[in-house]
Structure formats: C-alpha cells, structure tokens
Specification:
Blueprint lengths: L5 E4 L1 H6 L4 H16 L10 E2 L5 E10 L4 E10 L10 E8 L6 E6 L1 H19 L6 E5 L3 H13 L5 E5 L3 H14 L3 E4 L3 H5 L4 E4 L21 E4 L9 H4 L3 E4 L2 H9 L11 E2 H5 L13 E4 L4 H18 L3 E3 L2
Parallel strand pairs: 1-6, 7-8, 7-10, 8-9, 10-11, 11-14, 12-13, 12-14
Antiparallel strand pairs: 1-15, 2-3, 3-4, 4-5, 5-6
Helix pairs in contact: 2-3, 2-10, 3-4
The structure holds nicotinamide-adenine-dinucleotide.
The site of nicotinamide-adenine-dinucleotide has 26 residues, from α3 and α4.
Length: 325
C-alpha cells in the first residue's frame, strides 16, 4: 500500500492504529523465523553518544518476504526525565524497497516499548518455567508497563509483581498502574534485592549507562528463574553473564559486536539465539532448576515489521498527515 507522499504518524496516531500486543508477539515470532533462515538484512546498530549516558542508535532492516525496508533512529538520554522529557524518543522511517522513497515517518517510542516487551515475552515462553507466577521489575518506567502487558498475554498464572524503582513516586505510580490494569498482587519493594529474590522472572529496565554500575547480584536470583536485563549490562554484576546455566540472546552477531566494543565482557558462552529456539533447532529451558539469562539488545527487524503493520492500519483508518515529497 503506497502513497504519493510521506505519511507522518504522531505517537497518538501510532497508538490509535490499534495494533494489539497479541498481533505484535505473533509478528515477532514470524520475523524471527525469517532471521533464522538469514532471509533478512540487518547490520549491527551503530550509535553516536552526544552526551555522557546518552545514545542515538541507527537501526536499519530489510525483510524481503514482506518486502519492507526502514530504519529506526532512537535516542536514550539519562537526564531527560529530570527535564520532563521521555528517556527514550525517536522516529522510524519506512521506505518503498522498489524505489527507496520514504513512504512514512512515524514516532518510534510506542513501537519500542511494545516490541521490546514482546521479545521478552517470547523469550520467557521458551526460557521461563511454565508455572511462572511472580515477576520482579526493577525500573518502573515505560518498559515496565509494556512488559507486564506482554507477559500477561503468554502467562495466565501470574499472581505477584515485586517492583522497585529508585524514585519512590515512580514506584507508587507503577503499583497503581498494576492494580488498576491487572489482577495481580503488587509488592512495593524497598530495595532491588527484595524485588529480585523469589521472582520467577526478573526484568531490569533501568537506564543504559556508558559505565555500568552493577547493583543487582546474580546470587539473589533463585533457582529456576529467568533474568532479562534490557538495560544491556548496566545493572547486573558480572556473574549474571558468566555464571548462568544457560545464556541466550536475540542476536548473536549484535552481542558479539557489543562485546568487541567493551560491553558484556563477562559473557563466556552464548548458548543460542531466540530464533533458533523458536525453530526448534536449540532447546531453551532443559532443567527446571536452571538460572537463565537472556540478553535481548533489540532488533531493527522487529521495529520495521511492526511499523509496517501500523502503517497499513493507519492508511485504512485515514490516520496521520500526508506530507508532500
Ligand atoms: N534492549 C532493548 O531492546 C531495549 C529497548 C528499549 C529500551 N531499552 C532500555 O530499557 C530501559 C528502560 O527504558 P524505559 O523507556 O522504560 O525508561 P524509563 O525512563 O521510562 O524508565 C526507567 C526507570 O528506571 C528508574 N531507575 C533509574 N535508575 C534506577 C536504579 N538505579 N534503580 C532502580 N530504578 C532506576 C527510573 O526512575 C525510571 O522509572 C532503558 O535502559 C532503555 O534503553 C532496551
């Protein structure tokens, strides 16, 4: 569906497109199959760092089977929340693969929140225990909300959320959000250890720091749990990456790239990629007592695939503003 101009979709338009979490998870699963067969183009994301503890990443991807191409240009600025601005912001450009012309420019923050949570939920489907009941959340911002939404789609037995945020007000707001949207008990933890100990899955969604300041200790993680650090290696100690029974990622090549530039130094062995587990080529969880770490760094593929679905829906609903070439 191509138009004679660039369709601009604001954050509200993106949200109003009505793409559901179930649709996003299912699209992520499909796209990961394409990734497994290497029927995609997605170079490791380059980034610039205009301020300390700030990044702007370029994330291009082309998916031949769907014939879609695009790039996400996404920033994370640690100081933004103090200025009343979002930590994560960005835009995504979709291109017509035939001509290269941009067909849409859209806000990328909603997509980033939803697709990151969808990948975690899919990882958890294969790597967490099936009887998962409790979720530990550290960093109660945007991702903490979308992660609960995505996990609730996959796991029907969730009973408890243990949450912690360094900013008390954010913790309380998050607890209210959980109570009003889910039928789960919420524990407002007074320290990160309380949120992590005893949880079946732990999501750490604190800022990505240029110099990691490990706070969480792998020894706090109980047997059988899944650790999901979405803040790269900013929050967890080195044992989290060197001592899990198994360690997986959404993209081996990207993880190796980050190791080369000095991150994730403690990782000794990568047991496989999520796409290999989905295809049944590698086993995810093989022992109920294993402690597993999954390092998902974010896939441009998924951004572009989700954006393309949003674009299709937005055109049908007549959303956005058509900008002239
Ligand atoms: N891996 C991926 O694919 C991916 C994708 C998107 C975002 N991210 C990362 O996820 C993280 C969260 O993003 P977000 O949009 O939810 O940000 P956000 O600003 O909405 O939330 C971050 C929360 O962490 C809290 N926090 C900060 N330092 C803390 C600490 N030391 N202990 C406990 N809480 C602390 C903040 O108060 C805030 O509530 C960021 O690091 C972001 O870069 C990763």
């Amino acid at each position: 569906m191509k138009q004679s101009g660039i369709l601009y979709l604001s954050a509200k338009d993106v949200e109003n497109s009505g793409l559901s979490m179930i649709e996003i998870i299912s699209s992520v699963e499909d796209i990961l199959k394409e990734k497994y067969f290497k029927r995609i183009e997605m170079p490791p994301k380059p980034g610039i760092h205009p301020r300390s503890d700030a990044f702007i990443h370029a994330m291009p991807a082309f998916i031949p089977r769907m014939d879609i191409a695009g790039i996400k240009w996404i920033a994370g600025y640690l100081q933004n929340p103090e200025k009343g601005l979002p930590y994560i912001s960005g835009i995504l450009v979709l291109n017509d693969p035939e001509t290269g012309l941009p067909i849409s420019v859209m806000d990328a923050s909603w997509i980033t929140a939803k697709r990151t949570a969808a990948i975690t939920a899919l990882s958890a489907k294969h790597l967490a225990r099936k009887d998962l009941e409790s979720i530990g959340i550290v960093g109660c911002g945007v991702q903490a909300r979308s992660h609960l939404e995505a996990l609730s789609v996959i796991f029907k037995g969730i009973k408890k959320v243990r949450a912690y945020d360094i900013v008390k007000e954010k913790l309380f707001l998050y607890a209210d959000y959980v109570r009003s949207n889910f039928n789960y008990d919420v524990i407002e933890s007074t320290d990160p250890k309380e949120a992590i100990c005893g949880s079946d899955i732990i999501i750490t969604a604190t800022p990505i720091l240029s110099k990691p300041k490990p706070i969480a200790k792998f020894e706090w993680v109980k047997k059988g749990s899944l650790v999901c650090p979405i803040e790269f290696d900013s929050y967890w100690d080195s044992n989290t990456f060197s001592k899990p029974d198994r360690l997986f990622t959404d993209d081996v090549m990207q993880l190796k790239y980050y190791k080369k530039i000095g991150r994730f130094k403690a990782i000794k062995r990568i047991h496989g990629e999520l796409s290999e587990i989905i295809m049944g080529v590698k086993k995810g969880r093989i022992n109920e007592a294993h402690r597993i770490t999954v390092v998902n760094l974010g896939l441009a593929l998924v951004d572009v695939a989700v954006a393309s679905q949003i674009y299709e829906k937005a055109v049908k609903k007549n959303l956005g503003v058509l900008l002239p070439y």
